[in-house]
Specification:
136 residues, mainly alpha, 2 domains, 5 helices, rod-shaped, transmembrane helix
Length: 136
């Protein structure tokens, strides 16, 4: 599977860095209430650096461990719902042996799909264009 390259920093990440820097600068006056303290300008200068470092590590953790996209979460929820319904039907004593075999095959396929979400099952966004043009 070819993994798509994602930029490490985006507009959202830089906005988070700026917002975190702004929050950190509001912590300087409570930490050093004296306006003539020589460490106060140093803390104001460190706030953007600390926010960039914190944002970098947050991005690293998210990129390293991954998070599900909404489309993958939707597929996972749908598959889990299908699995519950299949299990409920399998417990019923009123189904024929042929239908039971069919349900077991469907259950196996659903479990395989659940396991492979994010690995081999790719979920396309609804807004992305598809390449289904008829050549006839």
């Amino acid at each position: 599977m070819i993994e798509e390259k994602k930029p490490f920093i985006s507009a959202k990440n830089s906005a988070a860095t700026g917002g975190l820097g702004a929050l950190l600068t509001t912590l300087v006056p409570p930490l050093l209430p004296d306006a003539d303290d020589p460490w106060r300008p140093a803390l104001y200068a460190l706030a953007p650096i600390l926010s960039a470092i914190i944002t970098y590590f947050m991005n690293w953790v998210i990129n390293r461990h991954g998070l599900e996209t909404p489309a993958e979460a939707s597929l996972r929820n749908r598959s889990e719902r299908d699995l519950k319904n299949i299990d409920k039907q399998l417990l019923s004593p009123n189904i024929s042996p042929a239908f039971r075999v069919e349900l077991l095959k469907d259950r196996e396929k659903t479990v395989r799909q659940l396991v492979n979400i994010g690995k081999t099952v790719q979920v396309a966004d609804a807004s992305s264009p598809t390449d289904t043009v008829d050549t006839e």
